[in-house]
Amino acid sequence: TAEARAKELKNYPNDCLVQLSNPNIVTMKEDVLYDFSLSTSTLEFPAMFGDVKFVSVLGSHSRMNSFIKYVAVELAFGHPGMSTPTSVYDCPHAMYKVGPVLSMSHGMGIPSIAIMLHELIKLLYHARCSKVTIVHISTSGIGLESGSVVINWQAVGACLKVEFQQLVLEKWVVQSTDLDEQLVPELLQCSADLSEFTTVVGHTMCTLDFYEGQGHLDGVLCFYTEKDKQAYLKAAHTSGISNIKMESSVFAAMCNTCGL
Ligand code: R2B
Fold first, then answer.
1. Domain Nucleoside phosphorylase spans what residues (predicted)?
2. How far is the CA of 136 from the centre of ligand 1 (A)?
């Protein structure tokens, strides 16, 4: 099962290569990453991406662009506006690479980020990357002072369960949404060292929709009241949820299963 596979991968040494849970890939002569417009038969993935150690995924192209420019300056890879960071290929999910840092934009919602993650994780696998850390960076937050940072240690579905459920060939498949427990204190320490903003550790709730799914009152449809919305958000907050993202559960499930 996916859960057994995730457990097995967790026992691998730290310097393990990126693993896939799909026996078909190894038998394929060519793997085409359709959305990235990349193919293993025309490009040398290990030469292009083999040095990647950190991957950041962000919703919008512009936020990702700001992030990677910041990384370029921090890592002394040149100034923003110079030839690095460069967009590698034209694709719906823009991709930038600066030294060991790869950054991808994922669009909105589970379907969009899931397609991107299938191709991104295969790219890391074909490139024989090892010791990769992948981080999802995004905005939002509930019950927090604005500007606070939430480090998510478990993603939660809209029913407040710590799991990701997906229909696969008519069957519901449930996957774990635990995130890397070693990375949480490391990131918390980074934030303490910076001492620039409040940082909390919490759950991130994943909803299937922005308007009704998150109780917004200004969509086309609204069959609940402000009171109902507040009660839902309060219950979520009381159960440890610190923010809402429409991608968090599938991100956690896929990375977990691939030992990332
Ligand atoms: C928050 O913002 C987007 C919707 O506006 C979506 O990606 C999310 O989770």
1. 58-259
2. 13
